[in-house]
Amino acid sequence: MAMISHLSEIQHTSVMSQEVIEWLVPKPGQIFVDCTFGAGGHTRELLNAADCRVIAIDKDLDAINGGEKLAKEFSGRLEIVHSSYDKIDEVLESKSLEQVDGILIDAGVSSHQIDTDTRGFSFQRQGPIDMRMDQTQETTAKSIIEDNTIDELANLIRKYGEERYAGRVARHIKEACEAGLLHSTADLAHVVSEAIPKRDARQRRIHPATRTFQALRMVVNGELEQLETFLQKFPKLLLNGGRCAVISFHSLEDRVAKHTFRELAKTSSLPPKLAEQAGERVHPICHVLTRKPITATEDEIARNPRSRSAKLRVCQRSEFEI
Ligand SMILES: C[S@@+](CC[C@H](N)C(=O)[O-])C[C@H]1O[C@@H](n2cnc3c(N)ncnc32)[C@H](O)[C@@H]1O
After folding, report:
1. How big is the chain by its Cα radius of gyration, in Å?
2. What top-level class would CATH report for the domain 17-112+223-317?
3. pLDDT tens-digit profile of 173-214?
4. Could you give the 3-state DSSP secondary structure of residue 236?
5. C-alpha dihedral (237, 109, 6, 66), degrees to nearest 10
6. CB-count burial class (<10 Å; 0-12, 13-18, 19+) for 199
7. How far is the CA of 218 from the centre of ligand 1 (A)?
8. Where in the chain is the domain with CATH 1.10.150.170?
C-alpha cells in the first residue's frame, strides 16, 4: 500500500522562479502545464503572474496531497493530476485539451522527498532502500539491486552516476545484499563508502555515496527515459507561439533537452522546393530561445545552494504545421 505523508503542504524552494515567469510570459486566459508540481512553487508563481489556468502533474502522492490547499486557493484555475509527465498527452486528453500555451518541467527530486526518511532518497538518513517518487510503482532501489547482475548494476552506476569506481561499488553492493546486510539507506551508504578507495573518498567534495544514490534514484524513477519520451511528445501539444521550459540538474538530462530543441529547430539546407521533394523539413518546428542555458544568479545560489547545478532551456513552437 502507498504510504502518504500527511502534511498539509510540502517543503521545497523553487529554482529560478523569476526566470521561469520571464520566459513563459503567462497572460490572462492562457493554459499552462506544470509537469513537476512538487511543492507548487512554480505553479503559484504562474497563477499569481496572470489570470491563467494551470494543469499540474506529479507522480508523488505527497505532492498531490500537499497541493490541495493551493488548489482551493486558486479554485477553478488549478487542477492537480497524479500522473507522470511522459503521459502528458493522456493528461491533456483527460481534460479535453489538445494544446496549451506553455509547459514547464523542473526535473529531479524535491526537498520533501530527500528530507523524508521513509522515502529512502538520502544517504544521510536512515530509511528503507526505496527511492520511488511514485509510491504506487513496484520497482524500488532494493529491487533494482536484487534484480541486476554486478555488471548490469555497474553499468547503471557508471552511466547515471558517472562513478569512477562503479565496478567496485556494484560488487560491494551485491555482496552485501546477498549476505543479507543491506536493510537501510545507512547500510547502503556505508557499503558504497567502503568500496571507494580511501584516498579518493577524502579528496571528493561530495559524500562518497552521492553518485551511486543519484544513479539508483534515476533508474528507479526512469528519469532520463521519461524526459526523452516527453521531449518527443511536447511540440504537438503546444499552440503556435507556445513555450516549453526545462530545468535540469543532471548533465544527461540537459544534453537530451539541448539536442531535442536543436533538432526541432533544424531545417533542410536545400531550397524549399528541393527540400520538399527530398522529404526534408522546410520550416522549423520550434525556435530555440536560449542558445546557452540560463543558470541561477549568485544571489539565488547563496540563498539556495541546490540551484547551483540547475540549467534552464526554453523553446517556442513555430507557426508552421507539424
Ligand atoms: C524539483 S521538484 C519540483 C518542484 C516544483 N517545481 C516547485 O516549485 O515546488 C520535482 C518534482 O517532480 C516530480 N517528478 C519527477 N519526475 C516526474 C515525472 N516523470 N512525472 C511527474 N512528476 C515527476 C517529483 O515527484 C517532484 O515532486
Report:
1. 21
2. alpha beta
3. 999 999 999 999 999 999 999 999 988 877 888 899 999 999
4. helix
5. -40
6. exposed
7. 13
8. 139-220
CB within 8 A of 175, min separation 6: which ones?
none
Please list every protein residue whose CB sits less than 6 Å from any atom of ligand 1. 12, 14, 35-36, 38-42, 57-60, 63, 84-86, 106, 108, 110, 133, 226
Q: DSSP letters of 260-314?
A: HHHHHH---SS-HHHHHHTT--SS-SEEES-SS-B---HHHHHH-GGGGG-EEEE
| CATH class assigned to 139-220 | mainly alpha
State mean pLDDT over 301-319: 96
Q: Could you tell which of 105, 133, 300 is best to mutate to test the pocket of ligand 1, judged by most ligand atoms within 8 Å of the CB?
A: 133
User: Cα(193)–Cα(71) distance, rounded to whole angstroms?
Assistant: 43
